[in-house]
Design goal:
The protein is built from 13 helices and 5 strands. By secondary structure, it is mainly alpha-helical. The strands form 2 sheets. The chain has a 3-stranded antiparallel β-sheet. It has a two-stranded antiparallel sheet with strand order 1-2. The chain starts with a helix and ends in an 18-residue tail after the last helix.
């Protein structure tokens, strides 16, 4: 620990002399800069510290006072190896402890990025830098994913709000846009305040695979699926099962059903089904031949809507007639119906 010596020393110098200075290029500047702190290190007597130790002193002072380093208007990362003299130190507005705790937790649960728990300017800068690097590449693929998935679900008749995957994709897009719309250190609070409408696990899966998911939906073999779903022969039941599974895959969150492998599996089933050659339809049964001229009809009748007792009576009469006429031949056609009107 460097203690409070340098903090006290710098505060005293700033109180006595202010922070106006002339930079190496001859221009005047105001505000706390690295070059000014280096000069104060050697006052009242030169310390003879190497640059790396000077940087360590400056970094410790910045950490104690919640200062961040800026080059012009852009924040920069400072390290022991190098801190440009023209960098300015500005005190950072910190988020509330509640926002900080939630932002640190969401960096871990949504992005898999562990952050320091202590709230100070240096840790805030690191979190914001990491968050910016993670969210900036996501905005375009998340927009395309939410749009493409929404259109596909609409075409399949899935109503708004019935697809957790789409709810999660829209929430992930809203989170990324909210974070990127915030400025600088405010991005930590934006992350903390963003809505998670399904679950952290669902959001994490979408954020991690946004580009791959968008591509999987965009490049899926939808013409093949649609051709299968139009089948109306004996394959239609299997086609309906493929349709139901595709809808299930599209609506479920990614952490529940991995979209790309599941769509590939259904595509393989659709290809096999479409390649099956349906058997030719059964030819119509030829009509019964007319009786020969030498034949004589000894019993003929037609009845409909018979219950069990009436049918038994008819069959009994047929049986009796056949018994009484051993050389007789029977032509028979029947059907039994279940249900319907009496």
């Amino acid at each position: 620990m460097l203690g409070s010596h340098w903090r006290t020393h710098f505060h005293q110098k700033q109180a006595r002399e202010g922070s106006r200075q002339t930079l190496a290029d001859g221009t005047a500047a105001s505000g706390l800069t690295v070059s000014l702190l280096r000069a104060w290190i050697d006052q009242p007597n030169p310390m003879g510290l190497p640059v790396e130790l000077q940087n360590l002193v400056i970094l410790a002072y910045a950490d104690q006072g919640d200062y961040s380093f800026f080059h012009g208007s852009a924040p920069i990362k400072a390290g022991i190896e190098r801190i440009p003299d023209e960098c300015a130190l500005r005190q950072q507005a910190l988020p509330t402890p509640e926002h900080w705790t939630k932002a640190v937790g969401r960096m871990a649960s949504l992005f898999g990025k562990v952050q320091a728990q202590v709230l100070n300017a240096a840790n805030l800068t690191r979190l914001v830098d990491d968050l910016s690097l993670l969210t900036e590449p996501l905005r375009v693929p998340l927009r395309a994913l939410a749009s493409g998935l929404g259109k596909r679900l609409t075409a399949l008749g899935v109503k708004d709000g019935q697809a957790p995957r789409l709810v999660t994709a829209n929430a992930a897009l809203a989170l990324a846009e909210r974070v990127l719309a915030a400025g600088g250190s405010d991005r930590a609070a934006a992350l903390a305040e963003a809505e998670v409408l399904t679950s952290d696990a669902a959001m994490a899966a979408i954020l991690a695979k946004a580009q791959a998911l968008e591509e999987a939906i965009r490049t899926a073999d939808w013409p093949l699926f649609e051709a299968v779903w139009r089948l109306d022969d004996q394959r239609r039941n299997e086609a309906a099962r493929i349709s139901e599974r595709v809808i299930e895959v599209l609506t479920a969150d990614e952490h529940a059903i991995s979209l790309k492998p599941a769509l590939d599996e259904q595509r393989a089933k659709a290809l096999r089904l479409l390649s099956e050659v349906p058997p030719p339809p059964q030819p119509p049964r030829p009509p019964s031949p007319p009786p020969s001229p030498s034949s004589r009809v000894i019993l003929e009748n037609r009845a409909e809507g018979l219950d069990a007792a009436a049918a038994d009576a008819v069959l009994g009469r047929v049986r009796q007639t056949m018994t009484e006429n051993p050389d007789a031949k029977l032509d028979i056609e029947w059907r039994i119906l279940k249900g319907g009107a009496d």
